[in-house]
Design goal:
By secondary structure, the chain is of the alpha+beta class. The protein has one domain (13-100). The chain has 5 helices and 3 strands. It has helices at 3-6, 46-57, 62-65, 71-79, 83-100; strands spanning 18-21, 27-32, 39-44. Strands 1-2-3 form a 3-stranded antiparallel beta sheet. Strand 2 and strand 3 form a beta hairpin. The chain starts with a helix and ends with a helix.
Length: 101
């Protein structure tokens, strides 16, 4: 499995297309896929939103900042790719690696 699918080692995140406050004090982040245009929404609790801000300030890896989010959700935040495009992209990448082996 590729490093990107397992989790990025840096904290470079894609800027969401939209951020909305949630009733619980958290927020929702909307990302438009640069490949297909599908919008993916990631919901953060207040604690996750605070952890994200502090983690980015300290340059922590995204998987350490938001361990409760799936690798797919974290990849949306890093690359903007929707889950389907991630599957397509990483499937192609794995097939290329198999051909090289």
């Amino acid at each position: 499995m590729s490093e990107a699918k397992e989790g990025r080692k840096d904290t470079m995140l894609r800027k969401p297309n939209n951020i909305e406050d949630a009733p619980n004090g958290g927020c929702t982040l909307s990302y438009k896929c640069p490949s297909c245009g599908t919008t993916t929404v990631i919901k953060l609790t207040l604690d996750e939103a605070l952890d994200l801000g502090a983690g980015l300030a300290n340059r922590k890896p995204i998987q350490d900042i938001l361990p409760g989010k799936t690798p797919t959700e974290r990849e949306v935040m890093v690359s903007g790719l929707c889950p389907k495009c991630q599957d397509d992209f990483f499937k192609e990448e794995e097939e290329e690696e198999d051909e090289e082996a």
